[in-house]
Request: fold
Amino acid sequence: EMRDTPRADAALTAPRLDLSIRPRRNRKAEWARRMVRENALTADDLIWPLFVSEGHNKRTAVASMPGVERLSVDQVVREAERAVKLDIPCIALFPYTDPKLRDEAGSEAVNADNLVCQSVRAIKKEFPDLGVLCDVALDPYTSHGHDGLLEDGKILNDETVAVLVRQALVQAEAGCDIIAPSDMMDGRIGAIRAGLDAAGFLDVQIMSYAAKYASAFYGPFRDAVGSAKTLSGDKRTYQMDSANSDEALREVELDIAEGADMVMVKPGMPYLDILRRVKDTFGMPTFVYQVSGEYAMLMAAINTGWLEGERTIMESLTAFKRAGADGILTYFAPQAAERLKKGS
Ligand code: PBG
Reply:
């Protein structure tokens, strides 16, 4: 720790600026920096995404996401236990569906016994007080890798929404606490809300991926859920153009009007400006997804020694708090929570 101590001889000879305002005074020591700190990351801010796959007692590395594994259901339950111990309030589930079960219509998405539903039941049985979020979209289940139904090269909006409602319902029946539609179809929040309410799931929350961009940063995730090789074309007819900002506000406004309890901006670090605008404009519980590509990028530099791991991870997460996030979906959730438990 460097400290500035006045020295009489230096004071006589050194040039001195005539400054009455010296912002460095508030940074002179750790206690002073702590005292004026504006934002603090806590474990309460973290949502931990996990990948589920078939099998028992099985963990498979995801090559493009060093440190992240696909887990069999029993192993997901073990990670849920870790989340509870680390005070992480909520986990998010994504399936790696056996390619044999993928079809044009993504029918495995509405199977009440699919990997996600099995996981939710197993987790809720052991840890009923841990929040569980389920992604709603068809891409882990379709043979073409799109989030919606495809006909003659086009994504069918309204037909897709009908399937998404059924997907949300099987997840809610399994015990999911938060339905998180990531598909970007028009009108899906209202339809899912109506579907949940009609089935009596009045307390199931909706966190909408409201401002979700067509991003190159999802590459490693598609590796993890096995849709990278199969995806035909791109998702630009439903995910947002990365050049747009006002459009994000219109998307968020619609999702709120349709009944979203919480909204999300995705990806994270390249879209901090969007996060700030959304939070300032709507004052909603606002979440951000530090996506797979951001994780891969940081891990690549950390693993080569080009960036210092712990500091880089904590700085990247604190930046989201500063930009207005109430919570962060991040693959770094356990590392960050462990760091926070240790204290500074
Ligand atoms: C599925 C979905 C994606 C992500 C979350 N839900 C991928 C996509 O839209 O292609 C990305 C998460 C990440 O990259 O970490 N619709």
In short: The first helix runs from residue 8 to 13. The chain has one domain: 40-339.
